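Hi W., the 3-hydroxy-3-methylglutaryl-coenzyme A complex you wanted:
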Amino acid sequence: MTPLPMVVPEEGLPTEVTIYEVGPRDGLQNEKAVVDVEVKSAFVKRLLGAGLPIVEATSFVHPKWVPQLADAEALMTGLSADLGERARELPVLVPNARGLERALDLGLRHVAVFASATETFAAKNLNRTLDSQFDMFEPTVAQALDAGVDVRGYVSMCFGDPWEGAVPVRQVVAVGKRLLELGVGQLSLGDTIGVATAGHVKALVAAFGEAGVEPGRLALHFHDTYGQALTNVHAGLQAGVTTYDASAGGLGGCPYARSATGNLATEDLVWFLTGLGIEHGVDLDAVVATSTWMAGELGRPSPSAVVRALGGAGE
Ligand code: HMG
Ligand code: MG
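Structure:
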């Protein structure tokens, strides 16, 4: 029998959390070896089968910028053939109107734009300035909303930037507010390089609150570079945030932020939430089996502590 943590709820925390799975996108975008489209498709289907309610499937970015996801059309076409309407509900990243057009051509219903909280990362990731990134997002979000498509807004480098160092909380709130004013539904606050600590998480969520943005509009997106991701989730839960991005097996990174390592592992998050008695709807065994299989495909063990503890470092 697979071990599970003893359930001991903690007062004052939400009773239910949404896990927003980003493994096929954030997890695979940084892989050196090109992962076959059939493997990606199987990965997405296995994650859905494990009960993950939202699986971000790929990115409609420039293929030269992220070659690993150059097969976005092929992946989504294949998934539509296999899953029908369910595939069109899978979110994808679109940086601009061209990316949105590609997503709309396939009938997709959920997209995400991704902004930078810092000048340097806006240049490196989007070839734009902090200000001019919004010239790209504005028509993209407007067109998506016109087409009845839901838009998520990411903000990267919310807790620190490898080139600029500390990032003032007010700068992050300003970028987040501008995305919300364009009409994005949910705002995902990214700790792209994994430097956040618990007090900082609470301070940022509180600063958004003071600016009129309730925790229900926010998601938290932690990379686990310094091993702080779960502590940061705990801080987020205490602050009332109920959506957490995670990546099966802890895959991930950003090709335009070299110090970014893997995302918070979905399995580690599931273990943690289960122990707190917080509903998440995910089958831990099925995600571990998926990450174990994926580790075999990638030829290296999963960095997730929970995947390792449950004996699934690689099939
Ligand atoms: P650019 O070079 O400024 O693009 O790149 P452009 O607008 O000048 O267009 C140049 C050419 O690219 C044109 O073609 C466009 O049509 C084409 P031409 O006329 O020369 O033949 N083009 C496209 N082709 C296909 N799909 C597109 C597209 N857009 C333009 N979407 C651009 C600007 C935004 C495109 C580029 O910088 C880019 O693709 N960046 C993506 C970088 C990326 O994907 N990074 C990783 C995701 S973000 C992340 O991981 C962080 C996150 O996880 C949260 C966190 O951890 O913080 C979300
Ligand atoms: Mg990320």
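The mean pLDDT is 95.

W.
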